[in-house]
Amino acid sequence: TKTYAMTGGASGIGAALKESLQARGDRVIVVDLKNADIIADLSTVEGRQHAIAGITELATDGLDGFVACAGLPPVAEPLSLITQVNYFAAVATIEGVVDLVAKKNGAIVSVCSNSAPLPGLNEEHIELLLAGKEAEACALIETLDGHNAYAGSKNALTKWTRRNAAEMMRKGVRLNGIAPGMTRTPLTDKVFADETLGDATREFSKCISYGDLATPDMIADAMLFLLDPAARYVSGSILFVDGGQDALLRPDQF
Ligand code: NAD
């Protein structure tokens, strides 16, 4: 049996991945606020430490894979929660379990977003994230907006993933990112229901080549690939799974 751990496995994309892994007989250790093997609030340093300690205790032989999936939408409040969960918790949990993943020459997937390359992002905020300055980044984001909090956190996580892939590879671990497009989950329901971001998001969702939003299993299937030995030569890649939206909007960027 293979053993995987993930954050955010109680809902949406993470839950779809958990179900796929369990359906083929793999063991999955879930960290989340509820309905999880380890209950932890990843917005806090203590919660992250609790999560890492819990995974370490449950996966003594190591991990075949780890997925940092927990995340909050651009409409979460306060905005600093998005910074804490989407960026700092992802980085802290990945760093906290990398030795466990190295034991089995496994793979790590950071859950980024196809919103990461969108325009209008504050560079100073992204620099603070990449510099690991959590308090400063949280203070700055409260003066910005949900787009900066969400897409900014995913932009920084994408860069962090690319910057750290080589170091992880030296440990025998493959680190890749996945960039989902809009996917039908409780997270997108909250965005669509928002007075300010709802209409803009509905408009944005019209330019998806596939013609519709993703279902969570479409994203989970691509994560399964990145976790699998079939992807054994894939490292530092950001896999866009967005129905062709990024290619449509930025055909010449890659
Ligand atoms: P979701 O809301 O269905 O699931 C997110 C999970 O994260 C929930 O189970 C939630 O409890 C958990 N979580 C939130 N805050 C937490 C905290 N402080 N501590 C522990 N767990 C916490 O959302 P989803 O749409 O499945 O999103 C999963 C990931 O995919 C997120 O990182 C999201 O940013 C990313 N993503 C989603 C979309 C989309 O359209 N749904 C698009 C691109 C990227």
Question: What features would you describe in this structure?
Answer:
- With 254 residues, the chain is α/β, with parallel strands linked by helices.
- The protein is built from ten helices and seven strands.
- Strands 3-2-1-4-5-6-7 form a seven-stranded parallel β-sheet, with helices on both faces.
- Helix 1 links the parallel strand 1 and strand 2.
- The longest helix is centred in the middle third of the chain and has 25 residues.
- The relative contact order is 0.14.
- Bound molecules: nicotinamide-adenine-dinucleotide (NAD).
- The site of nicotinamide-adenine-dinucleotide has 26 residues, from helix 1 and helix 7.
What are the main properties of this structure?
single chain; 254 residues; alpha/beta; Rossmann fold; 7-stranded parallel β-sheet; 10 helices; 7 strands; binds nicotinamide-adenine-dinucleotide
Oligomeric composition of the shown chains? single chain
Mean pLDDT: 97
End-to-end Cα distance, whole Å, is 37 Å
Radius of gyration: 17 Å
List the SSEs and their pairings.
Layout lengths: L2 E5 L4 H12 L3 E6 L5 E2 L5 H14 L6 E4 L10 H24 L4 E5 L11 H8 L3 H8 L4 H25 L3 E7 L5 H7 L4 H8 L11 H12 L10 E4 L3 H5 L5
Helix pairs in contact: 1-9, 2-3, 3-5, 3-6, 4-5, 4-6
Bound molecules: nicotinamide-adenine-dinucleotide.
